[in-house]
Amino acid sequence: MEVFVDPDLCISCGTCIDLCPEIYDWDEDGKAKAIEEEVPEDLEDCAKEAVESCPVDAIKESP
Ligand code: SF4
């Protein structure tokens, strides 16, 4: 799977970074970004948990 954060939607709550810091981090504008867009298999669960936990649905995933 791949993940992508839409910076226009992100409200910088930090949830995705708390849940899955191996995949998400802050960008230079204080919005979340995916460090690894192509998610390694062993991190798919936490990457998906972040997708489901984002309060504004800013994280998009593709299979
Ligand atoms: S959970 Fe959503 S709104 Fe919160 S920092 Fe991550 S992408 Fe942004």
UniProtKB/TrEMBL annotation:
InterPro entries: 3Fe4S_ferredoxin, 4Fe4S_Fe-S-bd, 4Fe4S_Fe_S_CS, Fe-S_cluster_ET
UniProt keyword list: Electron transport, Iron, Iron-sulfur, Metal-binding, Transport
One Pfam short name: Fer4_15
GO molecular function per UniProt: electron transfer activity; iron ion binding; iron-sulfur cluster binding
Domain 4Fe-4S ferredoxin-type: 1-29
Source taxon at top rank: Bacteria
PROSITE patterns, per the entry: 4FE4S_FER_1, 4FE4S_FER_2
Listed Gene3D superfamilies: 3.30.70.20
Summary of the function given for this chain in its UniProt record: Ferredoxins are iron-sulfur proteins that transfer electrons in a wide variety of metabolic reactions.
Protein name: Ferredoxin
